[in-house]
Design brief:
- It contains 17 helices and 14 strands.
- The protein is an alpha/beta fold.
- It has two domains: about 1-200, NAD(P)-binding Rossmann-like Domain (Rossmann fold), CATH 3.40.50.720; about 200-455, 3-Layer(aba) Sandwich (Rossmann fold), CATH 3.40.50.720.
- Strands 3-2-1-4-5-6 form a six-stranded parallel sheet, with helices on both faces. Strands 11-10-9-12-13-14 form a six-stranded parallel sheet.
- Strand 12, helix 16 (about 400-405) and strand 13 (about 410-415) form a beta-alpha-beta unit.
- Helix 9 (about 205-235) packs across helix 11 and helix 12 packs across helix 13 (about 335-345).
- The chain starts with a strand and ends in a 24-residue tail after the last strand.
- The structure holds nicotinamide-adenine-dinucleotide.
- The site of nicotinamide-adenine-dinucleotide has 27 residues, from helix 1 and helix 5.
Length: about 450
């Protein structure tokens, strides 16, 4: 099928590339000229495992191309995806301006299409309930061609996006006509391994499914973060609790890891949006409010713990931050916990050094020269009073910890992702503070005349 994808960010580019790889002819439209130049040269503008090579393969095969004209892209398209951003406004409501602009562009471009031309317009972006219905009535008012509107929210995870798209747990299709479902069934056919994978429903159900999924996943993380506080207070281990409840088939193991809090372009904004979607029908969503509050507190608590356990004042201490991306395997820093943590550290007048394997350039846009940027994690830790681990890059686990320990001012690690190995920490003489797990509090070597409590807990 001929497909156009408007917006080639994380979701649009993965959608365009993966649809090309299953046999469709896809034209991507991107308005950001810097991104577009990279795409046209065959360079992937984001870091996402497996995406660059698949994209280059599909460009070379003639299945995938990029441009900046909606009109050109949709000329022959049967299906047009809108995959532009729907970021949060400062008050947490959804900024719909990109989607509205893209919708208008599609509508204008369709003015030239023959009247018997059937086109399926798919909203892939995450949008509040009622958006697909509004788009449908807007197009009906402003366009003379035959069209149908489909809601097709995306559930991919950054870091495993290509795989998630090509092997979906489910494909959610919201629509109001059997023909719309038939078109989407044909589009996704190679990915539909059983009929349970292809779920059809009305527009509003599909729109709310996306928010419900993200709020549920965020809630699981926030719940475990609350439990981690009890673990610290009672000497329990949150990892044992995770295994203890995750093995219950009614609960399942996913998204039960405690840590410094969730981030990313989706969970925080979608949880906030759900709060507003609820408020707009006069309902105060207490559950969603608690998720947000717990997540905010978790980041603050992490820095308070650094301050309490550092063994010296935070002011003028050097804290090495390992990990800036909101999770491993991405360069995405949107709503990353590292942003708040670094901000609190700077407010406490600490000196902050930072390292990440992919996200350093993005984070420099926020903190500039307030932070010292170091390309190597060992060098980043050298001379520091503590390391704070904020992204679970697996590479951090295989660092030469003997060298790290020997070159730090004091060997203290606050593990905000519970991703380092306790035995390795003990063997290398670290004071080690994971989240919701027993700490290792061994005597510190004295370098600056500061002393902290001895004895391992
Ligand atoms: N990132 C994720 O993990 C993820 C997962 C599921 C759903 N979503 C949802 O998908 C949507 C897109 O998210 P994203 O992360 O890909 O955003 P993004 O910001 O990475 O990408 C959006 C792209 O659209 C482009 N754009 C904006 N207006 C345009 C226009 N009129 N014509 C052409 N291009 C235009 C922007 O330049 C940008 O490159 C959002 O609604 C988001 O909530 C994101």
């Amino acid at each position: 099928m001929d497909v156009a994808v408007i917006g080639c960010g994380y979701v649009g580019l993965v959608t365009a590339t993966c649809l090309a790889s299953i046999g469709h002819t896809v034209r991507g439209v991107e308005k950001d000229q810097r991104k577009l130049a990279k795409l046209r040269e065959g360079h992937c503008p984001i870091f996402e495992p497996g995406l660059a090579s698949l994209m280059q393969e599909q460009i070379a095969a003639g299945n995938l191309s990029f441009g900046d004209s909606v009109r050109e892209a949709i000329q022959e398209a049967e299906v047009v995806f809108l995959a532009v951003g729907t970021p949060p406004k400062p008050d947490g409501t959804v900024d719909m301006s990109f989607l509205e602009a893209a919708g208008r562009e599609v509508c204008d471009a369709l003015a030239d299409a023959p009247p018997d031309y059937l086109i399926t317009i798919v909203i892939k972006s995450t949008v509040p309930a009622g958006t697909n219905r509004k788009l449908y009535y807007y197009l009906r008012q402003h366009s003379t061609i035959e069209f149908q509107v489909v809601s097709n929210p995306e559930f991919l995870k950054e870091g495993s996006a290509v795989n998630d798209f090509l092997e979906p747990d489910r494909i959610v299709i919201g629509g109001e006509s059997p023909e719309a479902f038939r078109v989407m069934r044909r589009l996704y056919d190679p990915l539909i391994t059983s009929e349970d994978v292809f779920l059809t429903m009305n527009w509003e159900s599909a729109e709310l499914t996306k928010y419900a999924a993200n709020a549920m996943l965020a809630a699981r993380i926030s719940f475990m973060n609350e439990m981690s506080i009890l673990c610290d207070a009672y000497g329990a281990d949150i990892e044992d609790i995770r295994k203890g409840i995750g093995s219950d088939s009614r609960i399942g193991p996913a998204f039960l890891r405690a840590g410094v809090g969730f981030g990313g372009s989706c969970f925080p904004k979608d949880v906030a949006a759900l709060q507003h979607i609820s408020a707009s029908v006069g309902h105060e969503n207490l559950f969603v409010g608690a998720i947000q509050r717990i997540n905010g507190e978790q980041k603050r608590r992490f820095v308070e713990r650094i301050s309490a356990k550092l063994g010296r004042p935070l002011k003028d201490a050097t804290i090495a931050v390992w990990g800036l991306a909101f999770k491993a395997d991405t360069d995405d820093i949107r709503e990353s916990p590292a942003i708040d943590v670094i901000r609190y550290l700077l407010e406490g007048e600490a000196r902050v050094r930072a390292h990440d394997y992919k996200a350093m350039e993005n984070m420099k846009q926020i903190f500039g020269d307030q932070v010292e940027w170091v390309n190597d994690p060992v060098a980043c830790a050298a001379g520091a009073d503590a390391v704070a681990v904020l992204t679970d890059w697996p590479q951090y686990n295989t660092l030469p910890f003997r060298k790290v320990s020997a070159t730090m001012n004091q060997p203290v690690i606050f593990d905000g992702r519970n991703c380092l190995q306790r035995d390795v920490m003990r063997e290398n003489g670290f004071q080690y503070y994971p989240i919701g797990r027993p700490a290792l509090e061994s005597p510190l070597r004295l370098r600056n005349g500061y002393r902290v409590a001895a004895a391992e807990k």
